[in-house]
Specification:
The protein is α+β, with helices and mostly antiparallel strands. The protein is about 45% helix and about 20% strand. It has six helices and eleven strands. The protein has a six-stranded mixed beta sheet. The longest helix is centred in the last third of the chain and has 77 residues, at about 190-270. It starts with a helix and ends in an 8-residue tail after the last helix.
Length: about 280
């Protein structure tokens, strides 16, 4: 049974002291998986301020839970349409009664039975969380549930064994032994590190493309310069040929003039040139 504001105040006057009380992740494999789920979604929604992601964080919702601490918080949960800010825990009565929209539990040998049983019933009946997924970093088991008619029904898997999340607007699927997000077009949502590497690769590709374009431009300049020099050479050659032709013409004219002068002198001497 959910607490009223008066009951909460009587039970714990300062609700801001409700700290998260979750155990450490079972292994580095689980920790890495949780980190991927958090950072990828935060990177994808980096321009949004209307969501909160809880990672191994307690969710407080009832008097009995506060007394007995029967249920610990989900490994990963998303609350939409709320203020994006740090929190020590998720306290339902301090968050306008908002419960998680999506929950993902990372199965382990010690938690699988509870995650598949008691927690599944809790998220279905108490939280009314629209979508619940569990994933085993060890066996890669992935199952998705959607709340339909007040009961969790299995989300059908796609041909490549991905599960569509209406709440996320993304697919959840296994890629390189990790649970990852995919767009509706099937594009992998990168981690910030992967996105940074991709930007570095793009920048390097652009640098290489610019260098190729610069080399091509330099080649075209050299080719044009060679053609210009060849054209200048042809112009100079034509000029020399024209000058040589002019010299030959002048030489021929001089020879003709000399022959005419000689013929005239011979006639003056009474000698016909043709008789010589």
């Amino acid at each position: 049974m959910a607490l009223t504001a008066q009951e909460i105040e009587a039970l714990m006057p300062d609700c801001t002291e409700l700290l998260s009380d979750e155990p450490e992740m079972e292994s580095s494999l689980h920790y890495t998986q949780l980190l991927i789920l958090v950072t990828c979604l935060e990177w994808l929604w980096r321009n949004r301020e209307d969501f909160f992601i809880g990672a191994n964080l307690s969710v407080y919702y009832s008097r009995q839970q506060l007394k007995n601490r029967d249920f610990r918080g989900p490994d990963f949960f998303l609350v939409k349409d709320t203020e994006k800010r740090p929190r020590l825990s998720w306290v339902i009565w301090e968050e306008d009664g908002k419960y998680p929209n999506v929950i993902i539990e990372l199965l382990s040998d010690s938690t699988a039975k509870v995650d598949k049983g008691l927690k599944k019933q809790l998220y279905q009946n108490q939280f009314r969380t629209p979508e619940y997924f569990w994933f085993s970093p060890n066996t890669l088991e992935l199952v998705g549930w959607r709340l339909t008619d007040s009961e969790y029904k299995t989300i059908p898997a796609s041909e490549n064994a991905w599960y569509w999340s209406q709440e996320l607007g993304l697919y959840l699927g296994v890629w390189e032994d990790k649970l990852r997000y995919f767009t509706v077009e099937g594009r992998l949502i990168p981690t910030p590190e992967e996105a940074n590497l991709e930007e570095i690769r793009k920048a390097e590709f652009e640098r290489q493309r610019a260098e190729v374009e610069r080399q091509n431009a330099e080649f075209e300049y050299q080719r044009a310069e060679t053609e210009r020099q060849n054209a200048e050479f042809e112009r100079q050659r034509a000029k020399v040929e024209r000058q040589n032709a002019e010299i030959e013409r002048q030489r021929a004219d001089n020879a003709e003039n000399k022959a005419a002068i000689l013929a005239r002198k011979l006639r003056e001497l009474g000698i016909e040139p043709d008789s010589l």
